[in-house]
Amino acid sequence: MFIEVKQAGALTTVQDQGRYGFQGQGIPVSGVLDPLALKTVNILLGNEENHPVLECIGIGPVLEFTDPVYFAVSGGAFPAFLNEEEIQLNTVYQAKKGDRLKVTYSAVHRSCCIGFAADFDLIPVYGSFSTDVRSGIGGVEGRKLKSGDRIELKNVRTRMPGLKKRNCAPYPAKEEIITLRILEGADAGAFTDEGRNTFYSSTYTVSLQSDRMGFRLEGPSLETVDGNDILSAGIVRGAVQITPQQPILMMADHATTGG
Amino acid sequence: MKHSFTMTPCGDIGLMIRFEQRIAPDILHSVTQLSSRIAEAQIPGILDRIPAYASILVCYDPSKISYEELESRLRLFSDEQEAGETGIQRKIEIPVLYGKPFPEDLAHVAEHAGISAEEVIRIHTANEYPVYMIGFLPGFPYLGNLDKRIHTPRRKTPRTEIPAGAVGIGGAQTGVYPIVSPGGWHILGLTPLRLYDPSADEPVLLRSGDLIRFRSIGEDEYRQIQDTGGRLCL
Protein backbone atom coordinates (compact mmCIF):
# COMPACT_ATOMS: atom_id res chain seq x y z
CA MET A 1 0.00 0.00 0.00
CA PHE A 2 1.06 3.58 -0.31
CA ILE A 3 0.30 7.13 0.74
CA GLU A 4 -0.42 9.42 -2.16
CA VAL A 5 0.62 13.03 -1.68
CA LYS A 6 -2.25 15.05 -3.14
CA GLN A 7 -0.83 18.38 -1.96
CA ALA A 8 2.67 18.53 -0.55
CA GLY A 9 2.25 21.48 1.80
CA ALA A 10 5.00 24.03 2.34
CA LEU A 11 7.82 21.85 3.65
CA THR A 12 6.85 18.26 4.36
CA THR A 13 9.79 15.90 4.90
CA VAL A 14 10.54 12.49 6.36
CA GLN A 15 12.33 12.95 9.71
CA ASP A 16 13.40 10.98 12.76
CA GLN A 17 15.82 11.99 15.53
CA GLY A 18 18.54 12.70 12.98
CA ARG A 19 21.97 11.33 12.16
CA TYR A 20 25.00 11.67 14.39
CA GLY A 21 28.58 10.81 13.63
CA PHE A 22 28.95 12.81 10.42
CA GLN A 23 29.07 16.41 11.67
CA GLY A 24 32.86 16.30 11.51
CA GLN A 25 32.39 15.97 7.74
CA GLY A 26 29.99 18.88 7.54
CA ILE A 27 26.81 16.80 7.41
CA PRO A 28 24.18 18.22 9.77
CA VAL A 29 22.19 16.15 12.26
CA SER A 30 18.75 17.10 10.87
CA GLY A 31 15.79 15.32 12.47
CA VAL A 32 12.47 16.76 13.63
CA LEU A 33 12.35 20.32 14.93
CA ASP A 34 10.21 19.06 17.80
CA PRO A 35 11.64 15.85 19.34
CA LEU A 36 8.85 15.73 21.93
CA ALA A 37 6.25 15.54 19.16
CA LEU A 38 8.19 12.72 17.51
CA LYS A 39 8.28 10.72 20.72
CA THR A 40 4.67 11.43 21.57
CA VAL A 41 3.29 10.34 18.22
CA ASN A 42 5.38 7.17 18.24
CA ILE A 43 4.51 6.19 21.81
CA LEU A 44 0.80 6.67 21.02
CA LEU A 45 1.14 4.41 17.98
CA GLY A 46 3.27 1.81 19.76
CA ASN A 47 6.31 2.49 17.56
CA GLU A 48 9.94 2.87 18.54
CA GLU A 49 10.48 6.45 19.74
CA ASN A 50 12.80 7.17 16.83
CA HIS A 51 10.42 5.83 14.16
CA PRO A 52 10.38 8.17 11.13
CA VAL A 53 7.41 10.50 10.63
CA LEU A 54 6.29 13.14 8.17
CA GLU A 55 7.16 16.54 9.56
CA CYS A 56 5.10 19.49 8.34
CA ILE A 57 6.31 23.09 8.50
CA GLY A 58 4.15 26.07 7.61
CA ILE A 59 1.25 24.46 5.77
CA GLY A 60 0.64 20.74 6.07
CA PRO A 61 -0.07 18.27 3.26
CA VAL A 62 -3.15 16.51 1.91
CA LEU A 63 -2.60 12.74 1.90
CA GLU A 64 -4.72 9.93 0.48
CA PHE A 65 -4.49 6.35 1.69
CA THR A 66 -4.86 3.32 -0.58
CA ASP A 67 -5.48 0.97 2.35
CA PRO A 68 -6.39 1.25 6.05
CA VAL A 69 -3.63 2.58 8.31
CA TYR A 70 -3.45 3.87 11.87
CA PHE A 71 -1.98 7.34 12.26
CA ALA A 72 -1.75 10.30 14.66
CA VAL A 73 -0.79 13.97 14.43
CA SER A 74 1.28 15.56 17.18
CA GLY A 75 3.18 18.75 17.92
CA GLY A 76 2.01 22.23 16.95
CA ALA A 77 -1.68 23.08 16.90
CA PHE A 78 -2.24 22.50 13.16
CA PRO A 79 -5.97 21.87 12.64
CA ALA A 80 -6.27 18.56 10.79
CA PHE A 81 -9.18 16.85 9.02
CA LEU A 82 -9.88 13.24 8.10
CA ASN A 83 -12.10 13.68 5.08
CA GLU A 84 -14.18 16.65 6.26
CA GLU A 85 -14.16 15.89 9.95
CA GLU A 86 -11.71 17.66 12.27
CA ILE A 87 -9.52 15.31 14.30
CA GLN A 88 -7.82 15.79 17.66
CA LEU A 89 -4.08 16.12 18.06
CA ASN A 90 -2.25 13.37 19.95
CA THR A 91 -4.97 10.84 19.17
CA VAL A 92 -4.71 7.63 17.15
CA TYR A 93 -7.18 7.25 14.27
CA GLN A 94 -7.60 4.68 11.57
CA ALA A 95 -7.78 5.96 8.01
CA LYS A 96 -9.85 3.78 5.69
CA LYS A 97 -9.14 3.03 2.07
CA GLY A 98 -9.58 6.20 0.03
CA ASP A 99 -9.65 8.52 3.07
CA ARG A 100 -7.99 11.91 2.87
CA LEU A 101 -5.99 13.48 5.68
CA LYS A 102 -5.64 17.23 5.41
CA VAL A 103 -3.27 19.04 7.76
CA THR A 104 -3.70 22.80 7.57
CA TYR A 105 -1.57 25.48 9.20
CA SER A 106 -1.03 27.04 12.59
CA ALA A 107 -0.74 30.72 13.28
CA VAL A 108 1.31 30.12 16.42
CA HIS A 109 3.32 26.94 15.91
CA ARG A 110 6.00 26.03 13.37
CA SER A 111 5.78 22.29 12.95
CA CYS A 112 3.81 19.14 13.56
CA CYS A 113 4.45 15.44 12.94
CA ILE A 114 2.26 12.82 11.27
CA GLY A 115 3.11 9.33 12.47
CA PHE A 116 1.93 5.96 11.11
CA ALA A 117 1.68 2.44 12.50
CA ALA A 118 3.70 1.27 9.52
CA ASP A 119 7.20 1.57 8.07
CA PHE A 120 8.11 3.83 5.16
CA ASP A 121 9.62 1.69 2.42
CA LEU A 122 12.70 3.94 2.27
CA ILE A 123 16.40 3.34 2.79
CA PRO A 124 18.10 5.02 5.75
CA VAL A 125 21.15 7.11 4.84
CA TYR A 126 24.04 7.04 7.33
CA GLY A 127 21.83 5.53 9.99
CA SER A 128 18.84 7.84 9.67
CA PHE A 129 15.71 8.42 7.59
CA SER A 130 15.91 12.18 8.19
CA THR A 131 15.82 14.38 5.11
CA ASP A 132 18.45 17.06 4.75
CA VAL A 133 17.45 18.98 1.66
CA ARG A 134 20.73 20.87 1.39
CA SER A 135 22.91 17.75 1.53
CA GLY A 136 20.36 15.92 -0.63
CA ILE A 137 20.15 12.89 1.64
CA GLY A 138 17.53 10.88 3.51
CA GLY A 139 13.76 10.64 3.19
CA VAL A 140 12.37 10.62 -0.34
CA GLU A 141 15.32 11.25 -2.69
CA GLY A 142 16.84 13.72 -0.25
CA ARG A 143 14.15 16.32 -0.92
CA LYS A 144 10.90 17.66 0.44
CA LEU A 145 7.71 15.93 -0.68
CA LYS A 146 5.99 17.15 -3.80
CA SER A 147 2.46 16.69 -5.01
CA GLY A 148 2.04 13.35 -6.79
CA ASP A 149 4.63 11.52 -4.67
CA ARG A 150 3.73 8.04 -3.53
CA ILE A 151 5.28 6.79 -0.32
CA GLU A 152 5.19 3.03 -0.10
CA LEU A 153 4.35 1.60 3.31
CA LYS A 154 5.34 -1.81 4.60
CA ASN A 155 4.72 -3.75 7.82
CA VAL A 156 1.36 -2.00 8.15
CA ARG A 157 -0.12 -2.98 11.50
CA THR A 158 -3.74 -4.03 11.25
CA ARG A 159 -4.50 -4.15 14.99
CA MET A 160 -4.28 -1.35 17.52
CA PRO A 161 -5.15 -2.69 20.99
CA GLY A 162 -6.68 -0.13 23.36
CA LEU A 163 -7.35 2.30 20.54
CA LYS A 164 -9.72 4.47 22.61
CA LYS A 165 -7.03 5.11 25.23
CA ARG A 166 -4.35 6.07 22.76
CA ASN A 167 -4.45 9.80 23.24
CA CYS A 168 -2.95 12.51 25.44
CA ALA A 169 -3.31 16.24 25.99
CA PRO A 170 -1.92 18.58 23.32
CA TYR A 171 0.52 21.36 24.18
CA PRO A 172 -0.90 23.98 26.51
CA ALA A 173 -2.09 27.19 24.88
CA LYS A 174 0.77 29.32 23.68
CA GLU A 175 2.43 31.79 25.98
CA GLU A 176 2.88 35.17 24.36
CA ILE A 177 6.44 35.49 25.61
CA ILE A 178 8.63 32.47 26.17
CA THR A 179 11.67 32.69 28.42
CA LEU A 180 14.60 30.63 27.18
CA ARG A 181 17.33 29.67 29.62
CA ILE A 182 20.83 30.38 28.32
CA LEU A 183 24.17 28.91 29.30
CA GLU A 184 26.88 31.33 28.19
CA GLY A 185 29.38 29.79 25.81
CA ALA A 186 33.10 30.26 25.37
CA ASP A 187 32.54 33.25 23.07
CA ALA A 188 30.36 35.24 25.46
CA GLY A 189 33.37 37.47 26.10
CA ALA A 190 33.01 38.81 22.56
CA PHE A 191 30.22 41.06 23.80
CA THR A 192 30.39 44.12 26.03
CA ASP A 193 28.50 44.14 29.32
CA GLU A 194 26.11 46.52 27.61
CA GLY A 195 25.65 44.04 24.73
CA ARG A 196 24.92 41.16 27.09
CA ASN A 197 22.55 43.33 29.05
CA THR A 198 20.65 44.13 25.85
CA PHE A 199 20.43 40.43 25.04
CA TYR A 200 19.06 39.43 28.44
CA SER A 201 16.59 42.28 28.81
CA SER A 202 15.08 42.39 25.31
CA THR A 203 12.20 40.55 23.74
CA TYR A 204 12.92 38.98 20.36
CA THR A 205 10.38 37.88 17.78
CA VAL A 206 10.84 34.76 15.65
CA SER A 207 11.14 36.04 12.09
CA LEU A 208 9.10 34.68 9.21
CA GLN A 209 12.43 34.02 7.47
CA SER A 210 13.11 31.19 9.91
CA ASP A 211 13.64 27.71 8.52
CA ARG A 212 14.86 24.27 9.58
CA MET A 213 18.42 25.61 9.78
CA GLY A 214 17.70 28.39 12.20
CA PHE A 215 15.15 30.68 13.77
CA ARG A 216 16.03 34.28 13.11
CA LEU A 217 15.23 36.52 16.05
CA GLU A 218 14.19 40.10 15.39
CA GLY A 219 15.13 42.61 18.02
CA PRO A 220 17.95 44.85 19.18
CA SER A 221 21.51 44.05 18.01
CA LEU A 222 24.29 43.50 20.52
CA GLU A 223 27.37 45.59 21.16
CA THR A 224 30.56 43.59 20.61
CA VAL A 225 34.10 44.04 21.86
CA ASP A 226 36.29 45.42 19.06
CA GLY A 227 38.92 43.30 17.39
CA ASN A 228 37.56 40.03 18.67
CA ASP A 229 38.43 37.50 16.03
CA ILE A 230 36.60 34.25 16.64
CA LEU A 231 37.95 31.15 14.92
CA SER A 232 35.33 28.94 13.28
CA ALA A 233 34.31 26.07 15.53
CA GLY A 234 31.61 23.43 15.89
CA ILE A 235 28.14 24.48 16.99
CA VAL A 236 25.33 22.61 18.71
CA ARG A 237 21.63 22.73 18.11
CA GLY A 238 20.15 25.38 20.37
CA ALA A 239 23.21 27.61 20.13
CA VAL A 240 22.48 31.29 19.64
CA GLN A 241 24.68 32.70 16.92
CA ILE A 242 24.91 36.46 16.97
CA THR A 243 25.29 37.96 13.51
CA PRO A 244 25.67 41.71 12.92
CA GLN A 245 21.98 41.83 11.98
CA GLN A 246 20.30 39.51 14.45
CA PRO A 247 20.64 36.50 16.75
CA ILE A 248 19.92 33.15 15.10
CA LEU A 249 18.80 30.16 17.14
CA MET A 250 20.39 27.07 15.58
CA MET A 251 17.87 24.38 14.66
CA ALA A 252 17.90 20.86 13.20
CA ASP A 253 19.63 21.51 9.85
CA HIS A 254 22.12 24.06 11.18
CA ALA A 255 25.59 24.16 9.59
CA THR A 256 28.02 22.08 11.64
CA THR A 257 30.48 24.93 12.13
CA GLY A 258 30.20 28.66 12.44
CA GLY A 259 31.91 31.77 13.70
CA MET B 1 49.03 16.40 24.43
CA LYS B 2 51.72 18.78 23.28
CA HIS B 3 49.31 21.67 23.76
CA SER B 4 47.10 22.08 26.78
CA PHE B 5 43.36 22.51 26.35
CA THR B 6 40.38 23.83 28.25
CA MET B 7 36.86 22.40 28.42
CA THR B 8 33.60 24.36 28.71
CA PRO B 9 29.95 23.38 28.38
CA CYS B 10 28.20 24.15 25.11
CA GLY B 11 24.56 24.12 26.11
CA ASP B 12 23.40 20.86 27.66
CA ILE B 13 24.48 18.61 24.77
CA GLY B 14 28.00 19.79 23.96
CA LEU B 15 31.44 20.06 25.49
CA MET B 16 33.89 22.44 23.84
CA ILE B 17 37.57 21.53 23.95
CA ARG B 18 39.73 24.52 23.09
CA PHE B 19 43.42 24.77 22.38
CA GLU B 20 45.28 28.04 22.04
CA GLN B 21 43.20 29.96 19.51
CA ARG B 22 45.47 30.25 16.50
CA ILE B 23 45.63 28.70 13.04
CA ALA B 24 48.86 26.73 12.83
CA PRO B 25 50.01 23.24 11.81
CA ASP B 26 51.13 22.31 15.34
CA ILE B 27 47.69 23.14 16.78
CA LEU B 28 46.03 21.22 13.93
CA HIS B 29 48.21 18.25 14.85
CA SER B 30 47.01 18.31 18.46
CA VAL B 31 43.38 18.65 17.32
CA THR B 32 43.51 15.67 14.96
CA GLN B 33 45.42 13.54 17.48
CA LEU B 34 43.03 14.24 20.31
CA SER B 35 40.01 13.78 18.06
CA SER B 36 41.13 10.31 16.99
CA ARG B 37 42.02 9.39 20.60
CA ILE B 38 38.48 10.29 21.64
CA ALA B 39 37.07 8.23 18.76
CA GLU B 40 39.20 5.21 19.70
CA ALA B 41 38.14 5.43 23.36
CA GLN B 42 34.48 4.87 22.36
CA ILE B 43 33.16 6.64 25.44
CA PRO B 44 29.48 5.72 25.83
CA GLY B 45 27.18 8.72 25.38
CA ILE B 46 29.39 10.58 22.89
CA LEU B 47 27.34 11.14 19.74
CA ASP B 48 29.68 13.15 17.56
CA ARG B 49 32.92 15.14 17.35
CA ILE B 50 33.46 18.29 15.32
CA PRO B 51 37.17 19.08 15.03
CA ALA B 52 37.91 22.66 13.97
CA TYR B 53 40.94 24.99 13.66
CA ALA B 54 41.80 24.95 17.35
CA SER B 55 38.90 23.18 19.03
CA ILE B 56 36.86 20.00 19.16
CA LEU B 57 33.17 20.10 19.92
CA VAL B 58 32.08 16.86 21.57
CA CYS B 59 28.33 16.26 21.26
CA TYR B 60 26.90 13.94 23.88
CA ASP B 61 23.64 12.53 25.15
CA PRO B 62 23.14 13.90 28.68
CA SER B 63 20.85 10.99 29.53
CA LYS B 64 23.82 8.63 28.99
CA ILE B 65 26.74 10.58 30.44
CA SER B 66 26.90 13.67 32.64
CA TYR B 67 28.98 16.70 31.75
CA GLU B 68 31.19 16.14 34.80
CA GLU B 69 31.86 12.51 33.94
CA LEU B 70 32.60 13.34 30.33
CA GLU B 71 34.95 16.11 31.36
CA SER B 72 36.90 13.86 33.72
CA ARG B 73 37.16 11.12 31.07
CA LEU B 74 38.49 13.63 28.53
CA ARG B 75 40.91 15.22 30.99
CA LEU B 76 42.85 11.94 31.07
CA PHE B 77 43.95 12.58 27.48
CA SER B 78 45.83 15.75 28.43
CA ASP B 79 48.68 13.72 29.94
CA GLU B 80 49.05 11.40 26.96
CA GLN B 81 51.95 11.65 24.57
CA GLU B 82 51.22 12.71 21.05
CA ALA B 83 52.43 10.59 18.19
CA GLY B 84 55.24 12.23 16.23
CA GLU B 85 54.72 14.40 13.18
CA THR B 86 55.35 11.36 10.99
CA GLY B 87 51.72 10.19 11.23
CA ILE B 88 50.05 9.31 7.94
CA GLN B 89 49.09 12.51 6.20
CA ARG B 90 47.23 11.94 2.97
CA LYS B 91 48.27 14.01 -0.02
CA ILE B 92 45.46 14.73 -2.45
CA GLU B 93 45.70 16.46 -5.78
CA ILE B 94 42.69 18.42 -6.95
CA PRO B 95 42.54 18.99 -10.73
CA VAL B 96 41.13 22.41 -11.65
CA LEU B 97 39.90 23.86 -14.91
CA TYR B 98 40.88 27.48 -14.22
CA GLY B 99 38.88 30.38 -15.62
CA LYS B 100 35.50 28.57 -15.46
CA PRO B 101 32.64 29.31 -15.07
CA PHE B 102 33.29 32.94 -14.05
CA PRO B 103 36.39 34.11 -16.00
CA GLU B 104 35.84 37.64 -14.65
CA ASP B 105 36.70 36.40 -11.15
CA LEU B 106 40.11 35.08 -12.18
CA ALA B 107 40.70 38.40 -13.95
CA HIS B 108 39.67 40.28 -10.81
CA VAL B 109 42.05 38.32 -8.56
CA ALA B 110 44.85 38.95 -11.07
CA GLU B 111 44.08 42.66 -11.24
CA HIS B 112 43.88 42.94 -7.45
CA ALA B 113 47.30 41.29 -7.15
CA GLY B 114 48.74 43.29 -10.04
CA ILE B 115 49.79 40.16 -11.93
CA SER B 116 48.58 38.12 -14.90
CA ALA B 117 45.93 35.39 -14.73
CA GLU B 118 48.61 32.83 -15.61
CA GLU B 119 50.66 34.00 -12.65
CA VAL B 120 47.63 33.62 -10.33
CA ILE B 121 47.25 30.01 -11.51
CA ARG B 122 50.99 29.37 -11.07
CA ILE B 123 50.86 30.71 -7.48
CA HIS B 124 47.63 28.88 -6.63
CA THR B 125 49.01 25.54 -7.84
CA ALA B 126 52.42 26.00 -6.18
CA ASN B 127 51.52 25.66 -2.50
CA GLU B 128 50.49 22.68 -0.43
CA TYR B 129 47.36 23.45 1.59
CA PRO B 130 46.58 21.67 4.85
CA VAL B 131 42.90 20.90 5.45
CA TYR B 132 42.27 22.53 8.83
CA MET B 133 38.67 21.47 9.19
CA ILE B 134 35.54 20.35 7.37
CA GLY B 135 32.33 22.23 7.98
CA PHE B 136 29.82 24.85 6.85
CA LEU B 137 28.65 22.58 4.01
CA PRO B 138 28.96 18.79 3.64
CA GLY B 139 32.61 18.17 2.75
CA PHE B 140 33.65 21.83 2.60
CA PRO B 141 37.38 22.09 3.45
CA TYR B 142 38.84 25.05 5.30
CA LEU B 143 42.35 25.29 3.79
CA GLY B 144 45.36 27.18 5.11
CA ASN B 145 48.60 28.45 3.56
CA LEU B 146 47.21 30.58 0.72
CA ASP B 147 49.99 32.72 -0.77
CA LYS B 148 49.62 36.31 0.48
CA ARG B 149 50.02 37.70 -3.03
CA ILE B 150 46.63 36.38 -4.07
CA HIS B 151 44.60 37.17 -0.93
CA THR B 152 41.51 38.92 -2.29
CA PRO B 153 38.61 40.51 -0.37
CA ARG B 154 35.25 38.80 -0.93
CA ARG B 155 32.82 40.03 -3.56
CA LYS B 156 30.69 42.96 -2.45
CA THR B 157 27.57 41.17 -3.64
CA PRO B 158 27.58 37.43 -2.96
CA ARG B 159 26.33 35.19 -5.76
CA THR B 160 23.10 33.37 -5.06
CA GLU B 161 24.38 30.23 -6.76
CA ILE B 162 27.89 28.88 -7.02
CA PRO B 163 28.16 25.47 -8.69
CA ALA B 164 29.50 22.35 -7.00
CA GLY B 165 33.22 21.97 -7.60
CA ALA B 166 33.92 25.73 -7.67
CA VAL B 167 37.41 26.55 -6.40
CA GLY B 168 37.55 29.99 -4.88
CA ILE B 169 39.37 32.60 -2.85
CA GLY B 170 37.72 34.55 -0.02
CA GLY B 171 40.09 36.89 1.83
CA ALA B 172 43.02 34.79 3.10
CA GLN B 173 41.25 31.50 2.45
CA THR B 174 40.94 29.19 -0.51
CA GLY B 175 38.57 26.27 -0.79
CA VAL B 176 36.20 24.19 -2.89
CA TYR B 177 32.39 24.29 -2.84
CA PRO B 178 31.22 20.66 -2.58
CA ILE B 179 27.57 21.44 -3.39
CA VAL B 180 25.65 24.25 -5.03
CA SER B 181 25.58 27.12 -2.57
CA PRO B 182 25.33 30.88 -2.33
CA GLY B 183 28.71 32.45 -1.70
CA GLY B 184 30.85 35.57 -1.81
CA TRP B 185 34.17 34.10 -2.88
CA HIS B 186 35.95 34.77 -6.16
CA ILE B 187 35.79 31.62 -8.26
CA LEU B 188 39.11 30.74 -9.91
CA GLY B 189 37.95 27.54 -11.58
CA LEU B 190 36.10 24.25 -11.40
CA THR B 191 37.18 20.80 -10.29
CA PRO B 192 35.47 17.71 -11.75
CA LEU B 193 36.17 15.84 -8.48
CA ARG B 194 33.20 15.25 -6.25
CA LEU B 195 34.13 16.35 -2.75
CA TYR B 196 30.73 15.27 -1.51
CA ASP B 197 28.93 12.27 -2.93
CA PRO B 198 25.91 11.18 -0.92
CA SER B 199 25.70 7.88 -2.83
CA ALA B 200 29.20 6.80 -1.74
CA ASP B 201 30.03 4.79 1.38
CA GLU B 202 32.43 7.57 2.36
CA PRO B 203 30.40 10.64 1.42
CA VAL B 204 33.15 13.15 1.98
CA LEU B 205 36.48 13.07 0.12
CA LEU B 206 38.66 15.21 2.38
CA ARG B 207 39.35 15.14 6.09
CA SER B 208 41.19 17.43 8.42
CA GLY B 209 44.92 16.87 8.33
CA ASP B 210 45.01 16.08 4.59
CA LEU B 211 47.42 18.02 2.37
CA ILE B 212 45.93 19.45 -0.83
CA ARG B 213 47.59 20.56 -4.01
CA PHE B 214 45.77 22.04 -7.01
CA ARG B 215 46.74 21.10 -10.58
CA SER B 216 45.70 23.01 -13.68
CA ILE B 217 43.92 20.88 -16.29
CA GLY B 218 42.32 21.43 -19.69
CA GLU B 219 38.75 20.84 -20.82
CA ASP B 220 39.48 17.36 -22.17
CA GLU B 221 40.84 16.08 -18.89
CA TYR B 222 38.00 17.81 -17.04
CA ARG B 223 35.47 15.86 -19.09
CA GLN B 224 37.41 12.61 -18.71
CA ILE B 225 37.39 12.82 -14.91
CA GLN B 226 33.77 13.91 -14.93
CA ASP B 227 32.85 10.90 -17.09
CA THR B 228 34.35 8.55 -14.52
CA GLY B 229 32.00 10.00 -11.91
CA GLY B 230 34.44 12.51 -10.44
CA ARG B 231 35.96 9.88 -8.19
CA LEU B 232 39.50 9.99 -6.98
CA CYS B 233 41.69 6.91 -7.13
CA LEU B 234 43.75 7.09 -3.96
Total of helices of chain A:
2
What is the C-level CATH assignment of the largest domain in chain B?
Mainly Beta
Largest interface: A-B, 32 and 42 residues
Poorly predicted residue ranges of chain B: none
**What would you call the quaternary organization?**
heterodimer
* Total individual domains of chain A: 2
CATH topology of the largest domain in chain B: Cyclophilin
Q: Look at the helices and sheets of chain A and give the structural class.
A: mainly beta
Count of spatially separate domains of chain B: 2
Q: Topology as H/E string of chain A?
A: EEHEEEEEEEEEEHEEEEEE
**Beta content of chain A:** 25-35%
Put simply, the count of helices of chain B is: 5
**Strand order within the widest sheet of chain A?**
7-6-9-4-1-12-11
What's the number of extended β-strand segments of chain A? 18
CATH homologous superfamily of the largest domain in chain B - what is it? Cyclophilin-like
Element pattern of chain B in H and E? EEHEEHEHHEEEEEEEEH
Could you give a short description of this structure?
Chain A is mainly beta and 259 residues long. Helices cover 8% and strands 27% of the residues of chain A. Chain B is an alpha+beta fold.
Note down, in words, how this protein is organized.
The complex is a heterodimer of chains A (259) and B (234). Chain A has helices at 35-45, 193-201, and strands at 2-7, 11-15, 53-57, 62-65, 69-75, 80-82, 85-87, 93-95, 100-103, 111-116, 119-120, 150-154, 205-206, 214-218, 233-234, 240-242, 247-250, 257-258. Chain A has 259 residues and is mainly beta. Chain A has a 7-stranded antiparallel sheet, with no helix packed on it. In chain A, strands 2-3-10-5-8 form a 5-stranded antiparallel sheet, covered by helices on one side. Chain A contains 2 helices and 18 strands. In chain A, a hairpin with a 7-residue loop joins strand 13 (205-206) and strand 14 (214-218). With 234 residues, chain B is of the alpha+beta class. Chain B folds into 2 domains: 6-79, Gyrase A, domain 2 (2-Layer Sandwich); 91-227, Cyclophilin. In chain B, 24% of the residues lie in helices and 28% in strands. Chain B has a 7-stranded mixed sheet. Chain B has a 4-stranded antiparallel sheet with strand order 1-2-4-3, covered by helices on one side. In chain B, a hairpin with a 3-residue loop joins strand 3 and strand 4. Chain A binds chain B through residues 20-27, 29, 125-126, 134-137, 142, 183, 185-186, 231-239, 255-258, and chain B through 8-14, 16, 18, 21-23, 35, 47-57, 59, 133-140, 142, 178-179, 196, 198, 203-204, 207-208.
